[in-house]
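Sequence in, structure out. Go.
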Amino acid sequence: MSKTETGMTADPGATGPGASTGPGAATGPGAATAATDPPPNQEISPDGGDAGIDGQAPASVRAYGRLLGSELRLVFGRRRNQLLLLVVALFPLLIGIALKIAAPSGAAGGGNGNANGPNNGSAFFNQLAGNGVFLTFIALTMLLILVLPVVVSVVSGDSVAGEAGHGTLRYLLTVPAGRTRLLSVKYLAIVAFATTAVFIVAIVALLAGVVMFPVGPVTLLSGTTVSLADGLLRVLGVTLYIAVAMAAVGAIGLAISTLTEHAIGAIAALMILVVGSEVADDVPQFAAAGPYLPTHWWPMFDSLLRSPVDTTTLWHGLASFVVYAVLFCLLAWARFTTADVTS
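Output:
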């Protein structure tokens, strides 16, 4: 008797008693859904819709998230970087203690601060005895000159050059992530670290100011008194402004880092650039070039401490930071995507 006659190739839709139960027959739950199963490379979303071939969009997002998470753990997990954050946290405490000890001989409270640019520190000192909130502005002003740029320089200068110097960059590129994606992850990690450092300074300084000095309505540099809540909102605005400034520094450091395999060289080059920009900004003969220097708009956050707020100056500063960040990210991308990585 042939196989056809015995029903070994019977119609899978047969359900009667005469349907074959042989090895070739379609039986069980799988038989009822075999004709409607999606192709093996197509996923079904939880709500029954098509999630795309091989889940490409969600998979790419998940892969990027894993890569970013790995980079963040690497950056924040390094003992050197943790030590940098600890040092950054100690500075506001030391500044607060020193100012508290010197407070009896200093000027107290109030007064109309009319300082701009680099001279705004003296106005903050005059206000500190009357309100501890100003310790945040003092700490940010003092650390913005050198300490915060050093912290960002170390992380950004080491981002690509450090990998190349240790011989891990070419192995990292064997992962199917793409150079553009890898570079963007590096920059996001730099921005995250820089933002964390700035917020640590602001938070520690604010807490120290609350403990060491009186706290209440805030007298701005323009002489206007605002509520404590309004003052804290201005603290947040200043912190975010400086974080954007440091993100621009991180972009410059990332670009320099793609040009060398020596991290210390990239860090030193960025610091020379920052210090040179600060010095040039104070030289009257370079006044015409001042607004185009990367550090020129850093201290202009004091516009937030006046009433009304000088939004024109703030937007100029933010625009400068964004232009520098975009320009140097593009330079880093152009170099990194075309360079022959051998280490």
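Check: Residues 1-36, 38-55, 105-118 have pLDDT under 50 and may be disordered. Strands lie at 42-44, 50-53, 218-219, 225-226.
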